[in-house]
Write a structure and sequence with these properties.
The chain is α/β, with parallel strands linked by helices. It contains 14 helices and ten strands. Helix 8 links the parallel strand 7 and strand 8. Helix 1 crosses helix 7, helix 2 crosses helix 4 and helix 4 runs parallel beside helix 5. The structure holds pyridoxal-5'-phosphate (PLP).
Length: 324
């Protein structure tokens, strides 16, 4: 099954009542000296604080009436679960969210408050995923995957429709990358509009499953470690059906960033631009703050993918002196 551009336009209509059309704002502290025009796509302003509401709302909108009555289940590093529970409550669909013990408390609380049933099990995203599979089978629930699903990818692709409208000069988009639903949807649209637009994925050094899989030529597993970019944790699935191929064929480059670089990006975004982002949300800034091998062109959009960070932790990070 191929995911069409038309599916992304249908997703835009399907999610309009649940997800926000987010602002694109200039970032004058980034690249102005080199004459760059850098703008931030603020997915932090979504009602759940992250872009995943787009894919989740589209997947729920595409359920049959019977599936919607039975309810849905998902596994999540936090933001997907939050998105599914928010969209499900807006659409009156019962939801269960499976989390691993690595997910920060603030995210667990947020999901619970949205009315979903929570299941915590195991020490990795893969354990939570297993749990979601077995609940789907046992209770006849529709499983809403965090990234490897056509409706989820099409939902995330609506970001690129907005980018093309708001920033037709676009040369390059910098996109946080984990399982690849976000970047696959964006690349699908932008490469259809103009193959010369560069789409660049940014992952953390600690457990970059898509980067390792691209190098191997097939999906591979990586060891999960705690990171400031906790939302980028987890594998791409050994039985990956959609995102690996889309990223492989449509993404121009993938870059890896260190924990110190993630902290620096969060700090810069807050102190110089006034925006709060979680670690995963800020990684797209790194190629603009450090020397970068990839030519970015002149008109650059950075997807700031989420802001759901524990605020006490955030204050420590932005208060720390700049690292190496
Ligand atoms: C899920 C998530 C990502 C990565 O998205 P993928 O579709 O898995 O690549 C990036 N940033 C935030 C804030 C997220 O929640």
């Amino acid at each position: 099954m191929t995911i069409t551009l038309n599916a992304v336009y249908r997703a835009r209509a399907a999610i309009a009542a649940v997800a926000a059309r987010t602002p694109l704002v200039p970032a004058r502290s980034l690249g102005a000296e080199q004459g760059l025009d850098v703008r931030l796509k603020l997915e932090t302003t979504q009602p759940t604080g992250a872009f995943k509401i787009r894919g989740a709302a589209n997947a729920l909108a595409n359920l049959s009436a019977q599936q919607a009555r039975n309810g849905v289940v998902c596994a999540s590093t936090g933001n997907h679960g939050r998105a599914v529970s928010y969209a499900a409550s807006r659409m009156d669909i019962p939801a269960t969210v499976c989390l691993s013990e690595l997910v920060p408390r603030n995210k667990v609380d947020a999901i619970e408050q949205l009315g979903a049933r929570i299941e915590i099990s195991g020490n990795s995203q893969d354990d939570a995923q297993q749990r979601a599979h077995s609940l789907a089978e046992r209770d006849g629930l529709a499983e809403i995957p965090p990234f490897d699903h056509p409706d989820v990818i099409a939902g995330q692709g609506t970001i690129a429709l907005e980018l093309l409208e708001d920033f037709p000069e676009l040369d390059t988009v910098l996109v946080p990358l984990s399982g690849g639903g976000l970047i696959a949807g964006i690349a699908l649209v932008l490469k259809a509009a103009n193959p010369a637009i560069r789409v660049i994925g940014i992952s953390m050094e600690r457990g970059a499953a898509m980067h390792a899989s691209l190098q191997a030529g097939h999906p591979v597993a990586v060891t999960e470690e705690p990171s400031l970019a906790d939302s980028l944790g987890g594998g791409i699935g050994m039985a990956n059906r959609y995102t690996f191929d889309l990223v492989h064929t449509r993404v121009d480059a993938t870059l890896l960033v260190s924990e110190a670089q993630i902290a620096r990006a969060m700090r810069h975004l807050f102190i110089n631009e006034g925006w709060v982002a979680e670690g995963a949300g800020a990684v797209g800034l790194v190629p603009l703050l450090e020397p970068c091998d990839v030519d970015l062109g002149e008109h650059i959009a950075v997807v700031i993918s989420g802001k759901n960070v524990d605020m006490a932790r955030f204050q420590q990070i932005v208060a720390a002196p700049p690292g190496p």
